[in-house]
Amino acid sequence: MQDNTDWTTIEDVRGTVENTYDRCQLRTKIELKSWSHHSENCHANGEYPLPFLNYVADMREVDYLEQVKANVLDCDDLGGKDKVIKYLLKRINR
Fold it and tell me: At what angle do helices 26-44 and 81-92 cross, to 10 degrees?
């Protein structure tokens, strides 16, 4: 992953997610899913995706919550949509 530039490649995104996802905690898994979704959309539109750190710097808990509620992010491997919503609401309301 290239975190010192304003963009990365879809191959770097996919490789980063594949190589790190299973070792991450819930919060980071949500961030990776969101970043991957954003990056795939950029790629489909002929644009370069943002590096992970740039992407998550602009995201808030409520942004992830909206994505989960809208079924943008698949939460099955995270314990299901309801569990992820409860987790994010707890973080928002602390």
Answer: 110
Task: Give the burial class of 31: count Cβ atoms within 10 A of its Cβ; 0-12 exposed, 13-18 middle, 19 or more buried.
Answer: middle
Q: What is the pLDDT of residues 9-45, one digit of tens each?
A: 999 999 999 999 999 999 999 999 999 999 999 999 9
| Cα–Cα distance, 20 to 24 (Å, whole number) | 7
Number of H helices, E strands in the chain: 5, 0
Look at residue 54 and tell me whether its pLDDT is greater than 80. yes
Spatial CB neighbours of 69, under 8 Å, sequence gap ≥ 6 = 81, 85
SS3 70: coil
